[in-house]
Amino acid sequence: MSRYILKRLLMMIPVVIGVIVLVFTIMYFTPGDPAEIMLGESATPEQLAAKRAELGTDQPYLVQLGNYIKKLVLHGDLGTSYTTGQSVTSEIVAKFPTTFKLAFMSVVVAVFIGVTAGVISATKQYSIFDHVARVVALFGVSMPSFWLGLMSIIVFSVNLGWFPSSGFDKPIQWVLPSLTLGFASAGTIMRMTRSSMLEVIRQDYIRTARSKGQTEWVVITKHALKNALIPIITVAGLQFGGLLGGSVLTETIFSIPGIGTLMVTAIKQRNGPIVQGSVLFTAVVFSFINLAVDILYSFVDPRIRSQYKSKPKADKVPKAVKAGKAGEVSE
Question: Of 28, 76, 35, which is closest to residue 277 (Cα–Cα)?
Answer without folding.
Answer: 76
